[in-house]
Design brief:
The protein is α+β, with helices and mostly antiparallel strands and about 270 residues long. It is built from nine helices and nine strands. It has one domain.
Length: about 270
């Protein structure tokens, strides 16, 4: 494909993605992503499996390591909005995936069928977990121009703040990155998201930028401690109530995980 054909295809893909239910979308070039903070830092972090919550995977990857598909030249990252008045989009019914995640999966699967049928482009649908072949979605979203990494260590978008859910797919053509955008509302904010964390996961630096020769760590300054956040996740799991969800025939525990750092962010409200 020529450069003009690639640009025309990328525009058509974003338009079709919105028809499939996606609210935001953008592209990141794989070579740009390989130099992004999470892809560089994650394999280096001390006790990475505890810091990142990495699970044993089926691909025999080292902790924090990403497995790139051979054909991947660019990444399409898509997002759906998860507004405060629809918390059920992120509720887990036992082992059943949240409905918000199902929306993303359906949209990306539809794109995986539509793109090769209309363009000379091969595609690959990334799974969610790194250890099963996924990628760091927040870095991909920032390089795609969807938003920035906020002080709550989440992607903050101009339209919806951090109240979005992400998914990604690879394409076999080299589409230029559509970001980063320069959007950064956190420079004018008084740590509203951090102050509402029930476990104070942002209170102490996790590490120093000088240890990795980078000035930007996850959480902007290295203050986000995922193991501390996991204390709240375990608490939420232990307190989950059993009920019979719509479409289910038996009672299951409904997991409603903490989203305090999302609700605390004023952007997009």
């Amino acid at each position: 494909m020529t450069n003009q054909e690639i640009l025309s295809a990328s525009s058509a893909i974003l338009k079709k993605a919105k028809q499939f239910g996606v609210h935001l979308g953008g592209f990141a070039n794989v070579e740009d992503l390989k130099a992004a903070p999470s892809f560089v830092l994650a394999p280096q972090l001390p006790v990475v499996e505890k810091v990142l919550g990495t699970l044993a995977g089926e691909m025999e990857l080292n902790p924090g390591e990403v497995k790139w598909p051979a054909e991947a030249k660019s990444i399409l990252t898509v997002a759906v909005a998860h507004p405060e008045d629809r918390p059920e989009l992120d509720w887990w019914y036992g082992q059943i995936s949240p409905s918000g995640n199902k929306l993303l999966i359906r949209a990306v699967k539809a794109l995986c069928d539509w793109i090769p049928a209309n363009f000379a482009i091969d595609v690959f649908h990334f799974p969610y977990f790194i250890e099963h072949g996924g990628i760091y979605l927040k870095d991909a979203a920032v390089l795609a121009g969807l938003g920035c990494i906020g002080r709550n260590n989440m992607v903050v978008t101009p339209e919806f703040g951090p109240r979005v859910r992400l998914r990604a797919m690879a394409l076999s053509v080299p589409i230029p990155s559509t970001g980063p955008s320069g959007f950064d509302p956190c420079v004018r904010c008084d740590d509203l998201c951090r102050r509402v964390c029930p476990q104070h996961a942002f209170d102490a630096p996790l590490d120093s930028p000088k240890n990795y020769n980078l000035g930007v760590l996850p959480g902007r300054d290295g203050c986000y401690a995922r193991p501390t956040c996991y204390i709240q996740i375990r608490k939420d799991s232990d307190e989950a109530k059993a009920q019979v969800p719509e479409g289910c025939s038996e009672s299951v525990k409904v997991l409603k995980f903490c989203r305090s750092c999302e609700w605390g962010c004023p952007v997009g409200k």
